[in-house]
User: What shape does this take?
Amino acid sequence: MEPTPTLARSFWTAIEPIHCVAYFTPEAVAAMKSAGYRGFWMGYFAGRFAPLGALAPEPVAAMCYSFAPSLVARAIPDAWKYGAPSVGLAARLEGSSAALRSHASSSVASFGELAEVLWAAVEGCRFEGRPLAAGWSSVPRPSSPAGSAWLAATVLREHRGDGHVMACVGAGLRGLDAAVTHVATGASLRSLIQPTRGWTDADWLASERRLQAQGLLDSGGRLTKSGGTLRRDVEELTDRLAAGPVERIGETGVKAAIELAAPISRSLVDAGVIPVPNPVGVPRP
Assistant: This one.
């Protein structure tokens, strides 16, 4: 029997597709292009890291833990020549808000109510060791309900994501190793993860060999008993590190947030706006 998802994981599943309109929708991509950024990945990194200023590639790659540093370096720091961080931030907010208004089913979208409960959850976030979440937490709330809901969902997912990086690093995994072991759990596909994270076949093979030497993968690329235990420990720690917002609003608040967010997220998936499966690994709520 599969274990029951924690409240923190159920919360993430419900709100992640709302954040992900920033990556998968034509409105969000077009907004970054209109801001002057060249190509999808330049827009991706400029938009995601804009709250932290005109960073060099090294800290961006450190925070984008599972991405190949070479992929980051093709976009950063050149992105800042085409649009300052303030330009990227405005474009990310504008494009994501427009995407939600355009694609979320009007019969289920209650962005004002959702924003209220998500911002209450944000009050439970702690930002020690969470630079990306801390950066997004400093962004002024948009006046539009859709924009406010998107920003709150973004702070919460980056808070969880920074915690996940901590859990993986603490388990001794390199960024690519985390991706390879994630695929080995069956939760995602190599064909989705490898190209979107910028790793070569040689990189992937080197990671598999390293993990086999550590006793975490078998010769067929499957998790060993030790590998399975490590991945479960990583996911459990990720949930524990994401518990602050859940504790802040309590089980009743989390269930209210899920009741508001899940129908919006399902409508995005069912409309084909958020693909499932996807490189992020979020399922249909």
Q: What stands out?
A: Residues 10-264 form one domain. The two ends are 20 Å apart (CA to CA).
